[in-house]
Predict the 3D structure of the following.
Amino acid sequence: MDPSRELALVDPGARHIADAHDLHPMATGDAIRSKIGSPVSIATISSGFEKGDFLVREEKGQRVYFDFFEEAFNYIAYKGYIRMPKEEEREWMDTMNNVHASVKGGMKYNTGKLLMVLYRPIETDKE
């Protein structure tokens, strides 16, 4: 099997980026791991939907539709999300595209075209 087509398997117990990265090199990028030593939340902006031209998917599966990209970006930026570095964003996009392509007969729902991947550190209690 072509290594670029492998999927990252992440241990549900691995809560930190560093733990997830050690399991498989595609799980996360080195730049994010070196910048953030805490868990992160991922959000995406996609296009190509009937309810609105742009869709923001964020934590806990929340989906919000927008008619303009600027509105979608401002919405997610206001919540503290920042764009991933290009290399890491490309890894996430490739992984998501491979996952969607792996479904025989295609995805049940319109997944749209993934435009941007953003992240935000998750606030945790440090004891």
